[in-house]
Specification:
The chain is mainly beta and 184 residues long. The protein has one domain: Hexapeptide repeat proteins (UDP N-Acetylglucosamine Acyltransferase, domain 1), CATH 2.160.10. 7% of the residues lie in helices and 34% in strands. The strands form 4 sheets. An 8-stranded mixed β-sheet has the order 2-5-8-11-16-19-21-22, with no helix packed on it. It is globular, with a radius of gyration of 17 Å. The mean pLDDT is 95.
């Protein structure tokens, strides 16, 4: 199996595994920390900053074009099929939509950077809209839709995502500290 060409990336740490089937439209805008895996068939079209110990599962999309930004901080994770949308056309009728339409005829494009804080994890097939921050330690249940920023250390589920409980902050942070003490 062929490997991804890491030399195209803005920055790439150690112990990084990117599947050869991953498509990164603007690799010069992508910075990846250490201990990162990006699984098969992911599609990335934005500026992307990935911290350490991050996993992006198969069939994920992080889209929005060169003017958009997505940040995944340390220990963040995207399960299979997540969609992170950092820019989107206005579908309310202000113009034609899609990137192939000439600019004078296009609808307004809403660009909003997406930040997924440390220890935040998204379950399978979650969708995150532009301009959202997923708070530190937040867990998002499968198939949830995020249209506004989420508080730290909560579990969210549903369409739209709503908080259902609090996560164990102290336990997770203690495990991170142990890992880092062991030289990880």
């Amino acid at each position: 199996m062929a490997e991804y060409d890491y030399t195209q990336l803005l920055h790439c740490g150690k112990d990084v595994r990117i599947a050869s089937s991953v498509a990164i439209r603007h690799p010069e805008l992508v910075s990846i920390g250490s201990h990162v895996a990006i699984d098969d068939f992911c599609y990335i079209t934005t500026s992307l900053e990935v911290g350490d110990y991050v996993h992006i599962g198969p069939f994920c999309s992080i889209v929005g074009g060169k003017g958009a930004q997505c940040t995944l901080r340390d220990f963040a994770g995207l399960s299979a099929g997540c969609r992170i949308i950092c820019a989107s056309d206005d579908y309310l009728g202000s113009g034609l939509t899609n990137p192939m339409v000439p600019v004078p005829f296009r609808a307004q494009v809403h660009v909003g950077n997406v930040v997924i804080e440390k220890h935040a994890v998204l379950g399978t097939n979650c969708v995150v809209h532009p301009g959202v921050t997923i708070g530190e330690g937040t867990a998002l249940g499968s198939c949830s839709l995020v249209t506004k920023s989420l508080d730290s250390w909560h579990v969210y589920v549903g369409i739209p995502a709503r908080a259902v409980r609090v996560r164990e902050r102290a336990k997770i942070l203690a495990m991170e500290l142990s890992l880092r003490r062991e030289g990880g």
